[in-house]
Amino acid sequence: MREGGPLWRRSSMCGNESECLEVAVGHGGVMARDSKTPRRTPVRFTAPAWREFLHAVTRGELAGS
To answer: Is 63 helix (H, G, I), strand (E, B) or coil?
Structure first.
């Protein structure tokens, strides 16, 4: 996290799209939010849970969810 708050990033694959997942890495975890609603409370993941989430996405286990 930076002094003024989290540093939110989005995938370069999003381009100029408004429907992207944004993430911010913080102390011991990751926060995720929808770029369309940045003022809503982000979802928080522990570092291990975020890694497992990324592995599940990579393996295609969440397709159609």
So the answer is: coil
Instruction: Characterise 47 by phi-psi region: left (phi > 0), alpha (psi -120 to 50), beta (else).
Output: alpha
- Cα separation of 16 and 14, whole Å? 6
CB-based burial of residue 34 (10 Å sphere; 0-12 exposed, 13-18 middle, 19+ buried)? middle
Instruction: Give the global pTM.
Output: 0.73
| Residue 14 Cα to chain centre, angstroms | 13
28-42 tens-digit pLDDT: 899 999 988 989 999
Listed residue (34, 43, 37) closest to 14, CA to CA: 34
Across the strands, what pairs with 34?
Answer: 21
